[in-house]
Amino acid sequence: xxxxxxxxxxxxxxxxxxxxxxxxxxxxxxxxxxxxxxxxxxxxxxxxxxxxxxxxxxxxxxxxxxxxxxxxxxxxxxxxxxxxxxxxxxxxxxxxxxxxxxxxxxxxxxxxxxxxxxxxxxxxxxxxxxxxxxxxxxxxxxxxxxxxxxxxxxxxxxxxxxxxxxxxxxxxxxxxxxxxxxxxxxxxxxxxxxxxxxxxxxxxxxxxxxxxxxxxxxxxxxxxxxxxxxxxxxxxxxxxxxxxxxxxxxxxxxxxxxxxxxxxxxxxxxxxxxxxxxxxxxx
Amino acid sequence: xxxxxxxxxxxxxxxxxxxxxxxxxxxxxxxxxxxxxxxxxxxxxxxxxxxxxxxxxxxxxxxxxxxxxxxxxxxxxxxxxxxxxxxxxxxxxxxxxxxxxxxxxxxxxxxxxxxxxxxxxxxxxxxxxxxxxxxxxxxxxxxxxxxxxxxxxxxxxx
Lengths: 283, 158
Hints:
The structure holds two protein chains of two kinds. Chain A is mainly α.
């Protein structure tokens, strides 16, 4: 197997949009229980693009606020950690994730659509389980497949070898590893590391197809894994890889979920997806 | 003459000149109906087998579920002038992830519910491309009645 650094090079990372220092800092502050809205607002205000996105989101009808707000501080309070996570991630990742991914047969818009779908399905799973998880789950959900951008540019004719392997029953990410030396989950984890995002997020992205192989089991990882499965089954942003993944029955058992629970989430995901897409588009 | 894209949990009918398409069926069911004489037809993209999982959603949008969507599609095609005995009925999708077992077998159950409804109503499937782990895009050309499946860069007529 080729070492990862030979497959994902610094040049690949440069092809992707850099995360702004403010965005990276806000994501960290959002997960710091000691940081308050004032501290978060102070970071955002030095990034004009991010400020504009946060203000627009806080005034978008999707988020359900009637009165207009012009103050950044009240926008931060209004949105709260859950929506701020998603608005901040959209501010630096949406443009790149809305491009088509030729190697994976994903037309323009589909990778982002899948990301938002997994975010919605994760949200519904959290509600159904009645558990409390850190809002960084939305960052993980939105970024879990970002490695496809890197591999999609490199895969070229190798995609036929990957498909030949999946035709023989090998899962798509295992076929990527066999043919390319790494899978899109590992490539995505490299990106998140380069962006200096928290290790927990890196781990969720890294193991989203293989939750049992992660060093630390986590609720967030199991939820994002199953939310991804729901969206693949629904065909939301599904490309050449189709359904060639192996869902974890272990994750279902750990979360004590029944088939009907997963289907209840599936029933709510398409409409929630259209709403959140519109909300994040307005931001 | 319109080209209608049907989303997840959607349904549409049309006449000669129209084209109906639905993208990336995973475990969802894609069902096409076509009356070659009146040249009308329809396409359904249903997510889940049974509406009992969310009866409220089924009332708002019967196309979400196979047990409510299939009868709705037939009725909508009859309204346009389709006649049951002449309808050409084709099914696609109902795929499953690898090692789906009993926990992720929604696609199989979508197919089973479809077959039951058709059987009870004395309707036979004329063609099908179901199961497996590929995503499928289905197009119904209402001028010719041709159903085309695209999957993983390949296209073929069903």
